[in-house]
Specification:
11 strands; 7-stranded mixed beta sheet
Length: 126
Amino acid sequence: QVQLEESGGGLVQAGGSLRVSCAASGRTFSNYAMGWFLRAPGQECEFVAAISRNGALTHYEDSVKGRFTISRDNAKNTLYLQMNSLKPEDTAVYYCAARYSISFSTFSTDRAYEYWGQGTQVTVSL
């Protein structure tokens, strides 16, 4: 089992920045590909960004390219999402997810992931 706990969400004005983190425990973090997803009220879960188990490969949803950066620190068992130039439409609960992976691939569908955190709320005001 892998336990994931997000933190760092909050309220920020449009144009501002926020970094959310995901602390992992229970298994060897570097064996897991990781991803960030969001769920806005009344909406489906949506892909945001993904990173390979060694951090060498990343993949972003088009609307966040150039604004968000996914990264990981395997020594600290922590995943990050740096969010810049935030927009009101970025408002959502953000979830981190983990998938055991032998390869150094990224995964962009929610069904690919085995473990999920409880989410952290990000609210962007005008």
